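Hello,

Our lab assistant flagged a job as stuck in the queue for most of the afternoon. It eventually completed. Since we weren't sure the result was trustworthy after the delay, we are filing this so someone can double-check. Below is the sequence as submitted and the structure that was eventually returned. Let us know if re-running is recommended.
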Amino acid sequence: MPSSAYLIHPEVHTSFLSPTALQNLHYTTNIPIPSTKDIPPKHALVRIRAAAVNPRDMMVIALDRETYPVKEANGIAPCADGAGEIEAVGEGSYWKKGERVIVQPSGWMDGDVPELEGLKVKGAEDVEGTLRDFMVLEDSHLHRAPDHLSFTEMAALPVAGGTAVNTLLFGPVPLKKGMVVLTQGTGGIASALGATVIVTSSSDEKLGIARKLGATHGINYRKTPDWEEEVLRLTNGKGVDHAVEIGGAQSIEQSVRATKQGGLISLVGILSEDRALNLIGPILFGAKTGELHSFSSRLLISKKREIADLGWIVRGVLGVNTAMLAKLLETVQEHQLHPSIAKEFKWKHAKEAFEYSIGWSGVGKILIKVGD
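-- returned structure --
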């Protein structure tokens, strides 16, 4: 019985913000399903039920090496986020048929973070991704899912939630209860871990969702363009302990200004293109003006991932290892958390999910129901 997948076959090189990139993504059928005898020892065949879309997926599909500098993908499925159930197992596997599992998004098991190519993130280069009906994976690349989640909720967790845990607990300033965290996401994990969370978003509706997930304060950046001033007001002029920056060049300067002296700024996303910024003064002195400094998304993936200076620590957050994902799932189970889902797409409309994701700045993950 054959299966299906969406595979990358290079035709155009373009920006990850261009829908033209989807010319490189092709729906493919008649893919053989491995038989039990073809499954290696301590591996399992997983029936993928859902995959989530991340900005990096569009970078890979677009072959946008200016933004995501790894070798081109060819003939593999994109996406690192995925969840499903065990279909069959190889000899010595500790999994059982029917168990619900979440896919480890990269090959980083433990130890120091490797270089970008060494991460072996699924759905890039020559590493198979989750946008397919079936995958054969090592036992250690699978995690038992919390019982209360649906398949789409399971798939929404690894990259976003694991990155949140990496950002909050595994950096140079681990989160402590009572710390103030600024985020452009939902802040649900930070709230569950005891932080006071300030969320910025583009609409009051999105801020309402964030508050339901535990955010203490919400700032609509369309109504309040100088939102860093509001952050300073909410913190009595002090600034936040930790700013989690996902917007990139369009918002990093304001995040710097909103962070207290000695605070931490974590760069975890690239939702806008690079541009020149005035950052030297703000970083050194919390000043409103400064010398011209060029901010690049490559800071996220540079060899030196933590930049300490007189005032702040700026950290590029890259990757999720097994301990981080395990801690995330423990937190989700303990607090019975549900990830926010923005929209779900059927299998035949998978390309529309990627197009919908371009420039996405709302609350929640974009999901694809695989093989429905």
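-- support follow-up --
The delay was a queue issue, not a problem with the job. The result is valid. The chain has ten helices and 18 strands. The longest helix spans residues 322-335.
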